[in-house]
Amino acid sequence: MSEERREATRVTEHGPPLPISELDPALFPPSIGLSADEVARRHASGMGNVVPLKTSRSYKQIVHENVFNFINNVLFTLGALLLLLGKWLDALITVGVVALNTIVSLLQEIRAKILLDRIAILTRPKATVIRSGSEQELDPSEIVLGDLLVVHAGDQIVVDGTMVAGEHMEVDESLLTGESDTVPKHAGDALYSGSFVVTGGGRYVAVKVGAESLAVKLTLGAQAFRRVLTPLQRRVNFIIRSVLLLVLSFEILILIKALVFGVAFHETVRMSVVIVALVPNGLILAIALAYALGAIRMAGKGALAQQANAVESMSNVDVLCTDKTGTLTTNTIKLHAVHPIAVEEQRLTELLGVFVASASEGNRTSEALSETYRAAGLQTVDEVVFSSARKWSGLSFDADGVRGTYVLGAPEILEPALSDTDGYRHQLEEWVEHGLRVLLFAHHPEPRALNEARSGADQTPRLPRNLLALGLVCLSDELRPNVQETLNEFAAAGIQVKIISGDNPQTVASLARQAGISGVLEVVSGAEIERLDDHELGTIAESATVFGRVTPQQKERLVGALRDRGHYVAMIGDGVNDVISLKRADVAIAMQGGSQAARAVADLILLKDSFAALPWAFREGQRVFNGMQDILKIFMVRIFTKAALIGGVAAIGGFAFQPRQSSILSFFAAGIPAIALASFAKPGPGDHVSLMRRLGHFVVPAALLQALLGIALFTAYVIASPEPFITDHPGGTAEEVGITLYTAQTILTVFLVFCSLILIPLVVPPTPFFTGGSELRRDWRPTMLSVLLLFGFMAVALTSLGRLSFDLKLLDWRDFVICGTAALCWGFGTRWLWRAQILSRFLGVHPPSANGTAGDRD
């Protein structure tokens, strides 16, 4: 998008920027800012920046997604129809079981929201405001119209305003426009909320606050944007859509049967209730619950999930890209030494002191120098503020004693502009080999223009030619505590670590070795990357470990190249220069102490800058993924078994379930087990590639055998019963459907509940005896849950209130024995089918191996 088009878009959608000359002096006072009384008056007059704090999903969203989703709405509608037809108990139980599952999920999610909201406030951007002549750090909600705000490199523009003072500033507006190029700003230019200062800094006046600011308006329209789904979410969506097609097919057949055979309307509604219940609505709730529980556990270990699915995304990561400064190191930069080249050491230190004191914007390097070399700042003729893209900063002076142009930056960047490169090579290489950061300080005797004027207000920084090298500046940065143990955990989890830094490649490689990365490190520089096409870059990105002197754009290219090669990439960044690569990654991770820009685009924030919390976050992602695998097995076996039974029983002229029988089956076979398995899940490596094949290997034999035994039981009871088999009314009470069908439906329900309870230890085997479809877990909690659920179901089946509530017939003890025996036969038979790999042999495909891998992708 051109600058003209971009500005036209802003003017159309947001109104033109307000020039300084048009600002009302009564609303926007001079540099001292507003007084406390004036701030209070403007708050009272509705001129405050009142915007709801959005730290997670709102309560309205949670209620809407849990209660008023599509499937619930259909079931509620069918329940209302049953109520109108006088089938109040059917309506009550059908809707009641759905409501119970929904309430449990609601309570868990609301509890998670409360905890996460408390923690998320820690990462909310702050604003520096000048009031009554002094600077104050405030929450953005305390800003009022006309406040005078101060920003520096890395800060977020929190309200719309007009720049009134400051040197040259470059702003990243990519979150608003989608354009990654920085935009130069000068006095009188408009600044938009949601953008970030990349280089420079200055002051601006708040001219649009609250709902009038651009960021808020864009946020209100964010619902139209597509949410990025994880691989597991995409697979779950595929399963749900497939089941919806199946349900739609069944519903069409029911309508045809009702029209052809004259089935009563209330019977059609009752059958529809059973069929709609096939849709695994609880699966979506289980995913939300698993994410919420995972986010709470992550927060307890020092990692805040800003996106719910970031928890599960962590389990997919196989490549971790990280900067050196602020991630592997503490970002506590200290001056190590200086090496004079063309001047005496005393003169070199004097000039360095004046250089950093005169710069309009500082950074970690200038802070380290100013602590040692203190001097008074001087008026500059021109200035270029440091940026990670240029890798140098410069000042021009026209004062006695320091007249000339001075540049501080990366030696390899400044070398082409030097008149002589001899005299410092040996010292430079020695420091680099020890992992120290080295900068070159150079000089030109004349005060040259550092910014080349171009069209409009844009200026391009220009490095002067024929510079004289004055000296080397050596800086040190200590490694983070336990960084070696952390990197070892990544390696143990099969995660490749790529270190991408703006520092000298050899310096980064040396630090990587100190951090514990062993073996031969392939090192690549930004200059080499610039010469590579996309294919060559992909090859290098996979093979190399260290990338140095890399620009922000090259970081983005590296992340993109790894993703194009099929890797699931996590990127850690803490500076505004990392924003574009963070947005390109599958999982964006920021440090809490990093820039507001990095935190704003991150999926995950490491609280207290705890790099050691990251392996724990990966394990938590594995826990969520493993739990969802178990839940998928439970749901899919139930869905396919019920679907096969509905079709099979319909073939002999009956209907498999009553609505209330279907409800109790959903409660004991899926609802409670899903919630429990989400809580019981443990971390561990999971195979994401062949997930669907492994689910097929588990589900198809279990569901097919269960359906065949269920149809056999149903048919056997129909044949053996002395009562007539009435099929005219395939639903309702015993008097309406006949004793035989009513008994067979109850038998089928009891058999399926027994099978579902046996399925739980087969999904999470506590001992080798239960293995075959799943690997050994040695976790007895799911099995104990299965036993408790058995007692709960028997309490329902053996009490008159329970039978009345769920439309069950009183069975003889021999019927329970038959159902239990059939369920045990199903359990042993399914285990044999898994271990003998009957399905895989029949289909002629390679079965998943014992560790869950397979030869082919899904």
Structure notes:
Helix 10 (281-300) packs antiparallel against helix 24. Among the domains are: 19-48 and 125-224, Distorted Sandwich (Calcium-transporting ATPase, cytoplasmic transduction domain A); 249-295 and 622-843, Calcium-transporting ATPase, transmembrane domain (Up-down Bundle); 300-328 and 479-618, Rossmann fold, CATH 3.40.50.1000. The protein is built from 32 helices and 25 strands. It is of the alpha+beta class and 858 residues long. The chain has an eight-stranded mixed β-sheet with strand order 10-25-24-23-11-20-22-21, with helices on both faces. It has a six-stranded antiparallel β-sheet with strand order 2-1-3-9-4-7, with no helix packed on it. The chain has a six-stranded antiparallel β-sheet with strand order 12-19-16-15-14-13, with helices on both faces.
Number of strands: 25
What do we call the CATH topology of the domain at 249-295 and 622-843? Calcium-transporting ATPase, transmembrane domain
Helix proportion range = 40-55%
Number of helices, where a helix is a run of at least 4 consecutive DSSP H or I residues: 32
For CATH, the homologous superfamily of the domain at 249-295 and 622-843 is named as: Calcium-transporting ATPase, transmembrane domain
Query: Order of strands side by side in the largest beta sheet?
Result: 10-25-24-23-11-20-22-21
